[in-house]
Each structure stands twice: as structure tokens, then as C-alpha cells.
Amino acid sequence: MAGTSASRADNGPATPPAAEPRALPRDVRLFWWASTADALGSQTSGIVLPLLLLTLGYSPAAVGLIAGASAALGMVLGPLAAVPADRGARKTVMLWSASGAALAMATVSVTVASGRPPLVLLLCAVLVERLCTASYEAASRGTIAMICPPAGYPRLVARLQVGDNVALVLGPLLGGALYQVNRALPFLADALSYTVTAVCIRFMRADLRAPAAADTGTATPLADGPGEETPGPAGPRGGGGGPERHARRLRRAALLAEVGAGLRLVGSSPLLRLVMLWTAVVNGALSALYFGVLFSLRHDGHSGSATGVVLAVSGAAGIAGALVAPALAGRLGATRTFLAVTWLLVPLAAGLAVTRSPWAFATLFGAVCLILPAATVVLQSRTIATTPPHLQARAGAVLAAAAGGAAALGPAAAGLLASRAGTAGPALGCAVALIGLAAYTSSAHPRTLKSTGSTS
């Protein structure tokens, strides 16, 4: 892969470049359908799951327990699932994860259709689905580099973002409509979407195994080296365990080293550190801004239709932004596009603090969603191009955990700021955070994107 020959400053010791994959249009289409179907099903069922639990008489605490546990499980399991994916089992992990998630959602659908499902059963099924989803997402992060040459990264990343935004717009509408017909139907639709995902992955022809690395520096021997003494049961390593205990310790150390390889890579790469910081701050700000808009609309007495307007406009803007992002980045250049988007987020966030009209909220929030894809296409393309193939999933899991954790903190931060500074507090707080991010990226990383070579 051409992008793996990044500068020594970005990734430490140079990694021998792997052969650049040729374009595989059929696999690209199948991967797009797999990802879009996955996102559509998740949006369809995710919007109605809290409503179902509340309708069945469960407390808001129970709803929060399921949501929090599933999110935490995904963040913990992602790095673990990334190890076998990077080690050659990418396609297998994706296929069985999608199949397991389909089975879990089918179980939810059947139990909901049969009457009042036990909370424990729902919790187990949702957690299994989240485990499978986290495994699929971790494994899929290295797929782009296996089916597309570096010159095509921006276009494919943008197409995947289009699919995600289409799912974000259509999923809640579909979920609400199906829920009105029968409470089990949204979960059945999610099970079918996972089935489509599994079928698409199954029929991809590309070898999704990363080229073998000369030396990852992450593995620990699973047995004693040639110069080491192998103690017997009463040997110097402390009787009772002997070589078996020592072998278990070595295996645990090897697993921890494998899981930590992505974190070490992110820590050693200026580009990946920038990506982690930028995505964490922006995702946290986006989440806080959305909840700040909800607080403002409710405070002013607007109905739920006003929230629908904001969601519809922002979703449509996100689709449009993803469609034009590759061309925009190619015309302006990666660095200029990235910095321009980062600075433009500041006045848009500040504008949300002073407006009161639902249409003004929709326009400003839609503008945020319109310009964001250009920056994310640049960052994701460069991340794929500069991450060694055998570490794609693990590095991606670290970046996703940082972004997901920040997004999870956004609602709490918005609530705290709203209680202390009024409904304008979340937007003002986000504007301040984005000013700091823009100033930092402009001063500390003016050449980070340029140093990785052009993929736009």
C-alpha cells in the first residue's frame, strides 16, 4: 500500500511499503451496501428501543442502563476485536459479527411480538448485538485499504459518509412508521439489515488480509526463547505453576501487547494524534450542540416537529456535504480544506447561542453538517494512507474510542452548561472549545497533513 511509506516523523521506523491494491469496483459496491444497510438498520431500531422500554413500563434508569452498558461494551471490545482482524481474520470477523447481530435482533423481534419481553432477555440481546457491532466496526476499518488504491480513498470515504447520512435521515422515519404498525417490526428490519450486511461481505472477492509486516514490534513470544531456562514444576519461577503458568503469563502479555499496538502507533504519530484530538473535540461539540438546540427549543415551547425540522435539514446537508467533499478537498488542497472547516465551525457554533428560531437553528446546524464531511474525508483518507495495513483496525479502534467517548460526554456537558449559563451555554462553551482547537491545529500542525503526501 503506497500510503504506508509515511515519513519517519509520523510513524517512527519506516515500514516497508506493501503492494498497492488495485481498484475492485464490485467489492467497493458490496462494502458500501454492507455499511449502509448496517447503519440503516441500527438507526431504525435504535430510535424506538428507548420508546419500547418506556412503553413496557421500565424506568428511565433501566433505559439508561441498557444504553450506557451497550456503549461502554462497544468501546471496550473494539480494540480486542481489532487484533484478529489485523492478524488475517478481517473477513471472518465481519461475516460472523453481522450474522450474530442479525440473530440477536431477530430474538428481540420475536420476544417483543410474543408479548412483554423480560428486561434481562432484552438486555442480553442488545449487549450481544453491541458486541457484534463493535467487532464488525473494528474489523471493517481496514477494509478500505484492501479494496481501493490510495487515490480512491477520499471518494470511497465520502460515499460511505453519504450512506451513513442517508441512514440517519431515513432510519428514524422508517423506525417510527414500523413501530406504529407493530412494535416488533423495527427490530425485524434491523435483523434483515444485518443479514444483508453478512451476505454482502460473504460475496466480496478481495483478500481482506493485511500484507504481513516484517516486524510489528508488538508480539511477545508465546514460549521461552532459546536462551531461557524452562523451569520445572519446582523450578525457580515459583513452584506450583511451572512452565504452564509461565506460558499463560506470556500469552497474556502477548495479547496486551497486540491490543496496545494501536495505542502506541497513535501516540507515536503526529498525524494520528491530531486526528484523535480533532475528532474527539468535534464529536463532543457536535453532540453538545445538538442537545443545546433541543434544550433551547423546549425552553421556548416549540413542539417536536421543530426538532424534526432540525434533524431533516442537518441530515440532508450532511448528504450534500459528503457528495461534494472529495471535489472540494481536491480543489482547495487537503490542509486548506481542513483548516477552513475547523475555523468555520466557530462562528456557526456561536450563532447557535444567539438565535431562537427553529429555522435558524436548522440552518446553522445544517451548515455545520454541510462542511464537516470535507474535513473528515481529508483526515480519514490520510489516516488510512499512513497507517500500516497490519495496524489499521487497532489504530482505528483507538481513534473511534476517543471520538465515541467524547460524543457520549456531550449531552452531560450540554446539560451542565445549560443549567449554569442558560440555553445559550452549550453553544458558547462549544464555540470556546472550537476556538482552542482551531488555534492549536493552525499553530502546532500547519504541515502535518502535507507531510503525509497527497491522496486528494
Can you describe what's shown?
The chain has 456 residues and is an all-alpha fold. The chain has helices spanning 8-11, 25-46, 49-55, 60-113, 119-140, 143-147, 153-181, 185-202, 242-268, 270-299, 304-332, 334-354, 358-386, 392-421, 425-444. The longest helix has 54 residues, at 60-113. It is globular. The model is unreliable at 1-18, 213-240 and 452-456 (pLDDT under 50).
Ordered list of secondary-structure elements with their pairings:
Layout: H1 8-11, H2 25-46, H3 49-55, H4 60-113, H5 119-140, H6 143-147, H7 153-181, H8 185-202, H9 242-268, H10 270-299, H11 304-332, H12 334-354, H13 358-386, H14 392-421, H15 425-444
Helix pairs in contact: 2-7, 2-8, 4-5, 4-8, 4-9, 4-14, 5-14, 7-11, 7-13, 9-10, 9-14, 10-13, 10-14, 10-15, 11-12, 11-13, 12-13, 12-15, 14-15
Query: Rg to the nearest angstrom?
Result: 23 Å
Main sheet overview: none
> H/E element string?
HHHHHHHHHHHHHHH
| Total domain count | 2
How big a fraction of the residues is strand? Answer: under 5%
Mean pLDDT: 79
Structural class: mainly alpha
CATH architecture of the largest domain: Up-down Bundle
User: How many extended strands?
Assistant: 0
Low-confidence stretches: 1-18, 213-240, 452-456
CATH superfamily of the largest domain: MFS general substrate transporter like domains
- State the separation between the terminal residues, measured CA to CA: 16 Å
